[in-house]
Amino acid sequence: MAYELPALPYEYAALEPYIDEATMKLHHDKHHQTYVTNLNGAIEKHPELGSKTPEDLVKGLDSIPEDIRAIVRNSGGGHVNHTMFWQIMKPNGGGEPTGNIADQIKTDFGSFEDFKKLFNETTAKQFGSGWGWLVFDGGKLKVVTTPNQDNPLSQGHYPILGNDVWEHAYYLKYQNKRPDYLAAWWNTVNWDEVNKRFETAQK
Ligand code: MN3
Predict the structure, then answer these.
(1) Distance of CA 63 from the midpoint of ligand 1 (Å)
(2) How far is ligand 1, taken at its centre, from the CA of residue 105, in Å?
(3) pLDDT at position 170 over 90
(4) How far is the CA of 107 from the centre of ligand 1 (A)?
(5) What is the distance in A from the centroid of ligand 1 to the CA of 110?
(6) End-to-end alpha-carbon separation of the chain, Å?
(7) In angstroms, what CA-CA distances link 112 with 30, 91, 101, 143?
(8) How close is the Cα of 43 to the center of ligand 1, in Å?
(9) What's the CA-to-centroid distance between 161 and ligand 1, angstroms?
(10) How many whole angstroms from 48 Cα to the centroid of ligand 1?
(11) How far is CA 183 from CA 36, 154, 187, in A?
(12) CA of 166 to the centre of ligand 1 (A)
């Protein structure tokens, strides 16, 4: 198998009460696993692609053979997105941003509160399934959304953080109240990891 499901870096219940254990189990063990399984199935048809990182696959969708391009876009994107998602959260996370990302957020959005408000409002409006993202584009932070499992890498933007607004990410606990989930999610953010990603984005 070319790609593997990464272990969750904490217990399933570690993000309670913001994200419940049952959601984490299903989300990691079933949803993320399915993206990995389907990506591997596609790569079996073009084994030469198996040496690429999942990020490189998603970055270069145009060069993926047409017969598997949609699967790589959806399942490769799903794999990349969720791998990041588990890492940018942690137990006892949240609070004010730290490090360089804190300064950049102030520069580009005015304050952390203004940034959160923009991110939550923008992401709440993503119609149907998708993601909200913080990307670094042209020397500035920007909030964008993508549908389905599309990753900003496919548009040449490195995602610094992202939140999953597929219903599977929140429906068990929050039902139809996506804004409540978005508001609570900030209590899980791992700012050390976000700072690492910001450093990579600047390169
Ligand atoms: Mn998901």
Answers:
(1) 26
(2) 26
(3) yes
(4) 31
(5) 30
(6) 31
(7) 34, 21, 10, 13
(8) 21
(9) 14
(10) 28
(11) 29, 27, 8
(12) 6
Q: How far is CA 56 from CA 64, 124, 147, 155, 195, in A?
A: 10, 29, 20, 12, 21
Closest of 192, 188, 164, 168 to residue 17, by C-alpha: 188
In degrees rounded to 5, what are phi and psi of residue 189?
-70, 135
Find the 38 Cα to ligand 1 centroid distance in Å. Answer: 15
How many whole angstroms from 146 Cα to the centroid of ligand 1?
A: 13
Beta pairing class for 159-164 and 140-147 = unpaired
Q: Give the whole-angstrom CA distance, residue 147 versus residue 145.
A: 7
What pLDDT does 70 receive? 98
Map out the domains of the chain with their CATH numbers.
21-87 (1.10.287.990), 99-202 (3.55.40.20)
| Ligand 1 center–CA 31 separation, angstroms | 6
Q: Please report where in the chains the tokens 């145009």 appear, as a residue.
A: 62
pLDDT of residue 96: 97
Confidence tier at 1 by pLDDT (50, 70, 90): confident
| 178 alpha carbon – ligand 1 mean position (Å) | 14
pTM above 0.85, yes or no: yes
Task: Give the model confidence (pLDDT) of 96-151 as tens digits.
Answer: 999 999 999 999 999 999 999 999 999 999 999 999 999 999 899 999 999 999 99
pLDDT, one tens digit per residue, over 24-79 is 999 999 999 999 999 999 999 999 999 999 999 999 999 999 999 999 999 999 99
